[in-house]
Amino acid sequence: MGNIVFNIALGRVAHLASLPEANDALVMVPLESSGLVADSVMRDYDDLQALLAGATNEQTTMGRKTLTGVTVTVDDTNDRVAIDCADVTWTAATGNAVGAVVICYDSDTTTGTDANLVPLTKHDVTLTPDGSDFTLTISDFARASSAA
After folding, report:
1. How far apart are CA 7 and CA 26, in angstroms?
2. What digits encode the pLDDT tens for the residues 53-68?
3. Scanning 42, 70, 139, 140, which has the fewest C-beta atoms within 10 Å of its C-beta?
């Protein structure tokens, strides 16, 4: 599950994950382990371009992944909403070590830029690519609940 929800996305993750737009998507962006800023700093970025303009670098060799099988489930028993997706696999992963992934909302995958990608959640991941396939097993990448 996510280590942080970006301030810009508080209360919006479930809504954005469930939008049925023709060209929108959730996109996972791997971040290099060196240069990752603290969560308290990272959560204030309002778009992917701003996040990557500082010390944090995208791990571009492995590439971004569009999430598939995204589901938003209302759990009345536990008074929360769970957001899940299919596991993500990078085939023959190479490049610099990964320290985290960020899931972003892209409102238009056909024309957008990094300034249009809204960061939703950040997940700590430890991965040193060695040419092997790497699968990130995902079970509810985010949950939202009301504070009673």
Report:
1. 17
2. 989 999 999 999 999 9
3. 139
